[in-house]
Amino acid sequence: MEYILLAIFVIGYVGIALEHKIKVDKAASALLTGTLLWGLFAIGYHEVPAHLVEMFSNFSADGGHSSLSVFYEHRLLHHMEEISSILFFLLGAMTIVELVDAHEGFRVITDKINTNSKVKLMWIICILTFFFSAALDNLTTSIVMISLLKKLIDDKETRWLFAGMVVISANAGGAWSPIGDITTTMLWIGGQLSTSAIIVNLILPSIVAMIVPLGILSFRLKGTVDRPIYNIEPSIDPTTSFERNIVFTVGVCGLLFVPVFKTVTHLPPFMGMMLSLGVIWILTERLHYSKNHEHRSELSVVGVLRKIDTSSVLFFLGILLAVAALQEAGHLIFAATYLREALNDVYLIDLSIGLLSAIVDNVPLVAASMGMYDIEPINSVTLADEWATAFTKDGHFWQFLAYCAGTGGSVLIIGSAAGVAVMGLERIDFIWYLKKISLLALAGYFAGAGVYLLMFA
């Protein structure tokens, strides 16, 4: 059964990659893969997988249920807690961004970007993405930047190239901030890393991970970009300058408020996103209450929700379900164990996990690593024991893992939340990204890793 699950995942993965060749939307392939894997897992495992035995015993003792089907349902619902929180976060962020866009709020930024040079514009976009990602998170930043690119670049091929660099920059920017990437946040909350260690030790490798592909691409880019032409007469401008500015300001502040809300309340990030959405919803309703129904509906949350790319959300659901099924079946834990036994080097293990995160979601990989390797108490570790020292709080294994898991997902477009969001919003072809962006991301990944090794190894 283990091999059947793996084969179905690979077939589904190929279906996603060849979306345009087989003429089947990637969301359909992802949903079919995720649901099939869970269905086969539920009916195919008549005995509890070894890594779940203790969990099953506790479940049976607490609830009095000894049925495997009930236990598997419990495990699915457990994963759905995390998956649904990500989906609601994504839905909230997409709605806020679309609402700002409907009010033409991004003109506050696009009107200040006067250059049409591809190289200059690429550097501006990547630097903005890098630092926005650290302040917000790589997923929200990617959604915002794609909306900006649609206002700045008309040609699809050129916009896809910029979007690919947005993925690289967003993941690099998220790696050095405790709130910038979910895997870094996991290690921060889990006690493996402190805020100072994340920022001070990872910012330089992360910058290099962005600068190297950006520098390579700068030599290939020539000419200028053509901006989209909007035929909107001043007399029928849908919003006033005041409305644009206030919706943009409240929208951006709402997105920035999310990590603050999480830090203060310790509630999941989607709760902060929903709070921000509620605030901007009330604001826009009051701003336009006196307008006629047609104009008001186009500028309301209800109207904007019709424009949300629901297939992207369903694609995300399918991918996360598929990865969760592999995690339950023990494939990810097996991979983590194999890496430890085969490589026996903390830096090589981290590099491998980073590359694996391009294929499989980095969240369960980091979660598996956190479960496989305990935090070593500093007082019990001698300096001579280099292996144990690497696993102390702020040890090099945890630091390098945050970098590798955060940036390695850029190598493939479905290897990170930012990549999945960009793929859905821009309808980027998997094979196109593989040909045009993957090698650039790989060069940045190894360059940043090399900088970290020079600093500490």
Describe the secondary structure blueprint for this structure.
Elements: H1 2-17, H2 19-22, H3 26-44, H4 53-63, H5 68-102, H6 107-110, H7 118-135, H8 138-152, H9 156-175, H10 182-189, H11 195-220, H12 241-265, H13 269-287, H14 293-298, H15 301-305, H16 310-329, H17 331-343, H18 346-356, H19 362-372, H20 386-389, H21 396-408, H22 417-426, H23 430-436, H24 438-456
Helix pairs in contact: 1-3, 3-5, 3-16, 5-8, 5-12, 5-13, 5-16, 7-8, 7-9, 7-11, 8-9, 8-22, 9-11, 9-21, 9-22, 10-19, 10-21, 11-21, 11-24, 12-13, 16-22, 17-18, 17-19, 18-21, 19-21, 21-24
Brief sketch in words of this structure:
The chain is mainly alpha-helical and 457 residues long. The protein has helices spanning 2-17, 19-22, 26-44, 53-63, 68-102, 107-110, 118-135, 138-152, 156-175, 182-189, 195-220, 241-265, 269-287, 293-298, 301-305, 310-329, 331-343, 346-356, 362-372, 386-389, 396-408, 417-426, 430-436, 438-456.
Mean pLDDT across the residues is: 82
What characterizes the major β-sheet?
none
**Structure annotation, total helices:** 24
Helix content: over 70%
Shape call: globular
Rg is 23 Å
Task: Name the descriptors.
mainly alpha, 24 helices, 457 residues
Protein architecture, described:
The model has no long low-confidence stretch (mean pLDDT 82). The longest helix is centred in the N-terminal third of the chain and has 35 residues, at 68-102. α9 (156-175) packs antiparallel against α22, α10 (182-189) runs antiparallel to α21 and α12 packs antiparallel against α13. The protein has 457 residues and is mainly α. The protein has a domain at 84-185 and 200-305. It is built from 24 helices and no strands.
